[in-house]
Write a structure and sequence with these properties.
Elements (H helix, E strand, L loop, with lengths): L2 H23 L4 H7 L4 H20 L20 H11 L18 E2 L14 E2 L5 H10 L4 H4 L7 H10 L1 H10 L3 H22 L12 H50 L17 H9 L7 H24 L13 H17 L1
Antiparallel strand pairs: 1-2
Organism: Seminavis robusta
Protein name: BSD domain-containing protein
InterPro entries: BSD_dom, BSD_dom_sf
Length: 353
């Protein structure tokens, strides 16, 4: 064995010894591996909680976005909307709106300064700006507040905030000045929507119409169901109106065609010229007569009877005109000639017998 091979073997033994000592010094158990991979039960539970919270925020963010703070679904109170809108739009122009009735944490402080009789130690004393008495009186008037206002849920107001920021540019400016995220953001909007609720109260609109005690998730589900039902009814009504319009158009077309046909069939026939034979159609009268009871006289049958009577009268007049043989010597135009003829005929028969 050469000196090189001996050195290599020695190094290998030392390496194995170091490896064994390292394994014994750092025991690799399951707890260590879970912490190393961030998969402990506590971390899993926290991750699930955060996921559920994010899903909840996404689900309820638009649950209050159906109505702006001055709007209403009550048609009888529509007349109050403009007055309430003007009052709410003026709120963002007053900084006191966002300072009470709930104290905004970390609010800018002011130097009270000193007055006569105050010591130097009190000079420059810093105090927080407190809510005004007016805002506290308003709070006392509205209490108890609906849950969404009293236990203010900022996540449920996200959609409403987005809508109102597009309507009120002064509110955008105030938010950039007074709100800085975190708790300040929370109390900024809590104070603002409280004053919106009070403006609705003064205008005569319902506060519960927007901020009721219903769970935001349940409220969102109901609004979605109501919107779906309204869309279904609107689609059904539109389809019904379309069918009715098509049916009406079809009836108008058929009526117009029938009118044209009737106009052609009821045209007045041309009057025959003098000397030409007159053509009379009698099949219509025959049909009418056959369809009526025997005791009912139709105009056509009455006309026929009248014509027959006229014919008999004509024959009688013709016989009278030809004259009757005079049998009694009083002329041939008297009423006794016929009776004498009958008498003579009877006498002749008796003589023959």
């Amino acid at each position: 064995m050469s000196w090189f091979e001996g050195l290599t073997s020695k190094l290998q033994e030392v390496t194995e010894q170091v490896s064994e000592q390292a394994k014994s010094a750092i025991p690799l158990n399951n707890d260590f591996l879970e912490k190393l991979t961030l998969s402990t039960p506590e971390l899993d539970e926290e991750r699930k909680r955060l996921d559920n919270e994010e899903r909840r925020k996404e689900h309820i963010k638009d649950c209050l976005a159906g109505l702006l703070p001055w709007e209403t679904r009550d048609p009888e109170r529509d007349i109050l909307v403009e007055e309430c809108k003007d009052a709410i739009l003026k709120l963002s122009q007053d900084g006191a709106t966002f300072k009470g009735p709930y104290l905004m944490p970390g609010m800018k402080v002011k130097d009270v300064g000193t007055s006569d009789g105050e010591s130097e130690e009190e000079k420059g004393k810093i105090v927080e700006e407190k809510p005004t008495e007016e805002s506290l009186d308003k709070l006392a008037t509205l209490e108890p507040l609906p849950k969404l206002l009293g236990c203010f849920d900022l996540d449920a107001h996200v959609g409403l905030i987005q809508r109102i920021l597009t309507e009120d540019p002064h509110l955008v400016e105030m938010q950039s000045k007074l709100s800085g995220g975190g708790e300040r953001e929370y109390y900024f909007w809590k104070n603002y929507f409280f004053h919106c609720a009070f403006a609705r109260y003064e205008a005569g609109l319902s506060i519960d119409e927007i901020w009721n005690d219903e769970d935001p998730a349940e409220r969102k589900a109901k609004e979605e169901a109501a919107a779906k039902e309204a869309a279904t009814k609107a689609a059904a009504k539109e389809a019904e109106q379309k069918v009715a319009a098509e049916s009406k158009a079809e009836e108008e077309t058929i009526t117009f065609d029938n009118h044209k046909t009737e106009s052609k069939s009821t045209e007045t026939p041309s009057v025959p010229s003098e000397g030409s034979p007159e053509i009379v159609s009698t099949d219509v009268a025959a049909v009418e007569a056959s369809s009526l009871p025997a005791d009912v006289t139709t105009p056509s049958s009455a006309a026929s009877a009248s014509a027959a009577g006229d014919s008999s009268a004509i024959d009688f007049e013709k016989i009278a005109a030809e004259g009757i043989e005079d049998d009694d010597g009083f002329g041939d135009d008297d009423g006794f000639d016929v009776e004498l003829d009958e008498l003579e005929a009877e006498i002749a028969r008796e003589l023959e017998d």
